[in-house]
Fold these 2 entries.
Entry 1:
Amino acid sequence: MRNIWTIARKELNSYFRSPIAYIVLGVFAVIFGFFFYSILSMFIRQTFMQAQYMQMYGAPMHLNVNEMVIRPLLMNLSVISLFLVPMITMRLFAEEKKTGTMELLMTSPVTDLQMIFGKFLGAFFLYAAMLGLTVLYVLLLFRYGNPDWRPLVAGYLGQLLLGGCFLSFGLLLSSITRNQLVAGSLTFTVFLLLWVIDWVSEFSGTRMGELASYLSLTTHIENFSKGVIDLKDAVYYLSVIGLGLFLTARSVESVRWRA
């Protein structure tokens, strides 16, 4: 475990010694802030309209902060991660290969799994810090409103699992090339395909449609954004994370044999 934490700290420090962490966190904060302002403004307008309608017709108001603000925010958060996570993962192995430090890692007293888990955790901590920025926005809803915190916890758990899927496959694709731009482009392409594969279910047969729907990342994140923690969705994400890390181990092992 000590070797894993050492590599994780090294990766996290390298993010903040370069512009990557500041660019990712800054861009994320700006984009999420825009979505937060837009969705909250729409909710406030609908609140005023409902209040006027209630005064005119005596009808009760039925506005849910979780459904109308938090759930759309969490879905938009997934889309933002789709674009920004490749910036986090593209350097993990590609930079090591380009700078020639990959050979040093291979000959150091750490196993392949320790190296992989350490790099994964370092990237995961940066992703968690990115999600942490959104808590500042959400706290405003608790300051001026009364949202239910339980769907919010489920939504953030889903975002962490989704981010783990992105990071594990980003790690894999970074291990097969020494060019960071290529690694980032491949990562984004794979993420996008896993994101839109659900569209196949609208134009295909029942079995193919069910398979495409199950493989799609969007299908499983929707339940979490509703506040529903389904074991099936959790198993799916954990399986994808495990598959990505397993394939990364095989990729790193092939590099060791070629060396």
Entry 2:
Amino acid sequence: MKWITRERPKIDRLACPWLIRKFIDQEAEFLYVPFDLVISKALEEDATPYDIPGVEFTHYEQECTFDYFVRKYRIEDPAVKIMAPIIRGADTDRHDLAPESAGLWALSAGLAFNIKDDYQLLETGFVLYDALYSWATHLYQQKHLQSSPFENLLRQVYSKLQETEKTEKKTPQWARELKEMIQDQIDDNFVFDLKDISNELQINPSYLSREFSKHFDNLNFGEYIRKIRIEKAIHLIETTSYSLTEIAYLTGFSDQSHFNRIFKKHTGKNPSSLRKK
């Protein structure tokens, strides 16, 4: 049986011949002619026209010609059912129908651009749709890394290496010195001044402010100081008989109400409830 359509095929006019050869007629012949000659040449060659307006084998509503062939010949192959929305999406620029539609359009457009002979393009299209059919039959649920144990292992090793690099990242000397300075000042109840600390460390204040969180629990300078003060306050509450007002003073808070507010924000409890416990 002969089939005829307009020249320069891209998607439907390659997918339909593949479907015909695969499921309908293995000996089918296909003709490509200029659009305005399809009907006259169909009569002359005794061929069935497809994928042009006004013939039986064409688009209907939201469906493309491939859909009509599947329905007309009652093709129930599961892989074809998977392929149909991909082809429809690519042929009608509705790439939301299937994630593969955009890729099929790109490959089809590239083939048509590279291959100027329609019949050579048809043969190459058969290879393309054979591959798509094999994927839909055997690999539809499989991801790229699942198909290659080596690549999957390589990905796991690379991810592990990244995690190790993050956890074993060397702490710079200035950060170690700053931790000691902060602890000393916390213990002595000094007032913190980022500019003075920068001068002592001989580091630009802007650089110190920008890099601080990378080495101090992802907290900025003020947040980290409050965290250390609260930790010291908890230690004093649990191990001494100081009043809460005295502890507030010893940990650098201006008054007990401020101390209570920051303490509850960090721990979810009031200092008094912790002391009772």
